[in-house]
Amino acid sequence: MEIEVRKLCALKKYEGDFSFDYEPPADLCLIPLCNIEGKVKVTGTYEIYEDDSVGVTLTVTYKIVGQCSYCLNPAEKAITYTTEILYVTEKDDENYYYDGIYINLKTAVDDAILISQPNVLLCKDGCTGIDVSNK
Ligand SMILES: [Zn+2]
Fold it and tell me: Cα angle at 74 between 78 and 81, to 5 degrees?
């Protein structure tokens, strides 16, 4: 999950793409009674600029499985989320920092997974919750 910026510069590979599977930590899914199933697929492209900043387009694809937040029936949702980020070698409040040598994508990938997951997982659109009418 690393981009070896200095090495890529030496090879004059200023642009490229990457793809890997990421095993997410269990606490990365914030929805009660739900988990991320299996691994997260991470794909993206990078471009190294002249000032050593690196633009990265990152896509995470994963599936949340668990119980519907409203009715507790089994539920699942596939999520694909793309974000554009910038790595810089001088710390600021807006971008990700790296040391100019290599980038570890873990923090950005974790952030993308956190940002992209819904607040609730529903078994279907418009689930109204447990049926209490009891026919
Ligand atoms: Zn439901």
Answer: 15
Compute, in angstroms, the gap from residue 67 CA to the centroid of ligand 1: 8
**Ligand 1 center to 94 CA (angstroms):** 38
Whether residue 128 lies inside any domain: the answer is no
- Distance (angstroms) between ligand 1 centre and the Cα of 86 equals 39
User: Does the predicted TM-score (pTM) go above 0.85?
Assistant: yes
Q: How many domains does the chain have?
A: 1
Within a domain: 13: yes
Q: How far is the CA of 76 from the centre of ligand 1 (A)?
A: 11
pLDDT in tens, 59-116: 999 999 999 999 999 999 999 999 999 999 999 999 999 999 999 999 999 999 999 9
Furthest-apart CA pair in the chain: how many Å?
72
Residue 108 domain-assigned (yes or no): yes
CA 119 to centroid of ligand 1, rounded, Å: 14
Cα within 13 Å of Cα(72), Cβ side: 2
